[in-house]
Amino acid sequence: MPLPVPPVLAGAVPLAYVERDGTVESVHLGTLARVERDGAVSGHGDPDTPFLPRSALKPVQAVALLRAGLDLDGELLALACASHSGEAGHLDGVRRVLAGAGLTADDLDNTPDLPLGVEPGAAARAAGTAPAPLLQNCSGKHAAMLAACVAAGWPTAGYREPDHPLQRLIHDTVTELTGRVPDVTTVDGCGAPLFGSTPAGLARAFARIAVAAPGTPEGRVARAMRAHPWCVGGTGRPVTRLAQAVPGLVVKDGAEGVLAAGLPDGRAFAITVLDGSPRPLPVLAAAVLRGWAADTPELAETARVDVLGHGRPVGSVRAVT
After folding, report:
1. Which InterPro entries match (predicted)?
2. Phi/psi of residue 230, each to 5°?
3. pLDDT over 90 (residue 270)
4. I want to staple 243 with a disulfide (CB 3.0 to 4.6 A). Which of 27, 186, 229, 264 is the partner?
5. Going from the N-terminus, what domains does the chain have, and what CATH number goes with each?
């Protein structure tokens, strides 16, 4: 008996291919949703396929934290939206968020891990550093969740539970900004609830954040991410380089090949790569932005993903779109 085809697979199409000396050796399938200035949605594959947006949802979660009373802006709010590399400045910022709420790293309840960044992770391993919640890439989000609980007068104990007031507010904010009630609630890698959506829903949320008025929770998130792209990712990270390459871009990546971005004029897009690889994401993001005449010299370099043969480029990852 044939196995049933999951909807995410049925809705996927080729998005990018890997070319080596003129030969295609692999193809990345997935879905890409675009939102235009007037709110019209188009895409490659089925943009309404249910999926898990992973850490690309963090800017939406941060909007909910501000609505709960979290008093953060600038680099510390950008860290609340981050999957940071675990560099010294990231960890210092997380400690500052906690200290501002009268808390310490001992209050974090995210999954212990080593830094996500290649160099910080290697240094931690070489030093024999044990995995810790502070070092894990979602510690900024969890610190901000705890601070939001303190601001709202909610208990910090159990802040990760789906029925906690904070997580109920996040659920409602995800529903509002994506225009869709989450199809599923599961547990993200960091231990926080993860609310499902669709590529179209995620793109709508980024469009709303990117055009929001200054001073609104959405506008504050957009301003922080635009002003502090290093805090959102880290040194050399594609998500940071994309934000630096395109003025006004609000962009966030997530595990399993997810990326979403929005421009100040209301256009936005979301990508999910079916095999979970982040490799084609910069190429695909650049292809969308070029199609919208949002190209820059820096974007061309950011979007270059070489295929190597004996240490030298012999091909590249190319967008089908």
Report:
1. Asparaginase_II (IPR010349)
2. -65, -35
3. yes
4. 229
5. 7-75+157-319 (3.40.710)
